[in-house]
Specification:
UDP-N-acetylmuramoyl-L-alanine:D-glutamate ligase; about 20% strand; 15 strands; Protein-Tyrosine Phosphatase, Chain A; about 425 residues; globular; six-stranded parallel beta sheet; alpha/beta
């Protein structure tokens, strides 16, 4: 009942903040670059920051129908407590009249967690440029209703159509992953110039302890982080953006990433931890598996948490991941959550172990680790709470995702 009420009020309340955000945005009048899509938005945003630097303002940590208006208004959420909402409601009219930001470019990450979100946010942002590199099944449960109502033939089409509003409202340039058929089908909606990035442009991909190297259209790019092969789309897009705004693109990409996105830590017993626990879907799992296949380790253990918010596609998506994992060579496969137990174990059988609760998976890992393994974490079910207990340096806890008090309380309730 509470969730239904929240959903019913979501856009009603969001319109209030959008109204004042629009006032400040018009007074500011930046050139708006929207970064959207199912996967890789934050990586793309950070790569654009590498290329554009201080020329632009960036919407770090804000990508929703509330987060983006808050970012424009300069309202920063702290405790995520209920009392913040009336306070922000009172502050919004005054924030709209504050002096505009100094930067002339606004690079903003925009998500589509639910139907109408793309339409809602694109009406506010009216982008000059849109970067759209993926469209896949994230938050699929929210789009099931439109499929059942025969508005769209599939949830994939419903999701792509929502992202397509950003392309539709773009005035100058849309940069897309041309290998995504779902994206290509939406491009008739835009009158802007289209710049396509294709897999054939990637000539070399190497990953190791020193980071990741990409050779794209004859140019070598180095990133001092572990990144999936699919990141080349974002690198190519960032180069196009740099050129569009008159910058000379850099090839040494000193990228910093938010927590939970392929971070590397030293673990107990001389293990290596690859933390990609922030979120997941089948396509992002595929990308991570491809990346770790090139990692210089002989003993890789996978810890996979449930794929959440998949709705009617839940069974299909978990089976898809299980089949992907079944083709690899891993020291151990640890599944965490009731969905993988139900849908993944029949495929993986004795190749995997399954636990419903993250505390059980942690107990298993602490018992079974011999030393020297590489532990790859991907998915939901509070995997960051498991990682927290396996770090060699406890100071690294601050570098994990979901450090806010509300998440610490929830992990404690789950025995972590």
């Amino acid at each position: 009942m509470v969730r239904k009420l929240k959903n019913a009020l979501y856009f009603l309340v969001a319109r209030y903040f959008r109204f004042f955000a629009r006032i400040r945005l018009r007074r500011w009048a930046p050139r708006v670059v929207v970064v959207t899509g199912s996967n890789g938005k934050t990586t793309t945003l950070n790569l654009l920051e590498v290329q554009l630097g201080s020329l632009a303002r960036y919407s770090h940590g804000a990508n929703s129908s509330f987060g983006i208006p808050f970012d424009i208004l300069g309202l920063k959420r702290g405790s995520y407590a209920v009392w913040e909402w009336p306070l922000f409601a009172l502050r919004a009219p005054f924030a709209a009249l504050k002096n505009p930001f100094a930067e002339k470019i606004y690079v903003v990450e925009a998500d589509c967690d639910r139907p109408y979100e793309g339409k809602f946010l694109s009406a506010l942002l009216q982008p000059e440029v849109t970067v759209w590199l993926s469209s896949t099944r994230t938050h699929s449960a929210n789009f099931d209703k439109s499929v059942r109502a025969h508005v769209f033939e599939s949830v994939d089409e419903a999701i792509a159509h929502e992202f397509g509003y950003f392309a539709e409202r773009t005035s100058k340039l849309v940069i897309v992953n041309a290998d995504e058929r779902a994206i290509e089908k939406q491009l008739a909606r835009t009158g802007a110039e289209i710049s396509r990035v294709r897999k054939t442009q990637l000539e070399r991909y190497e990953v190791g302890i020193g980071g990741t190297e990409f050779t794209i259209s004859g140019v070598r790019y180095h990133v001092p982080l572990l990144l999936p092969e699919e990141t080349f789309y974002a690198i190519a897009a960032s180069v196009t953006i740099a050129q569009y705004f008159g910058n000379i693109p850099t090839t040494e990409l000193k990228l910093s990433m938010p927590p939970g996105r392929s971070s590397i830590f030293k673990g107990v017993k001389n293990t290596v931890i690859v933390d990609s626990s922030y979120n997941t879907n089948a396509d992002s799992v595929r990308a991570i598996l491809h990346m770790v296949a090139k990692f210089p380790s002989r003993d890789i253990w996978l810890v996979l948490g449930d794929l959440t918010e998949q709705g009617a596609e839940e069974k299909e998506e978990h089976e898809k991941v299980a089949k992907l994992v079944s083709t690899g060579s891993y020291g151990k496969i640890i599944l965490v959550g009731p969905r993988f137990a139900l849908y993944g174990m029949p495929i993986l059988q004795d190749r995997a172990v399954s636990f419903e609760m993250p505390r059980e998976a942690l107990d298993y890992l602490e018992k079974e680790l011999r030393g020297g393994e590489t532990l790859v974490f991907k998915g939901a079910r509070f995997l960051e709470g498991i990682i927290e207990h396996l770090l060699a340096d406890k100071a690294d806890v601050a570098k994990l995702c979901r450090r806010e008090a509300v998440w610490q309380k929830r992990r404690a309730q789950w025995g972590l």
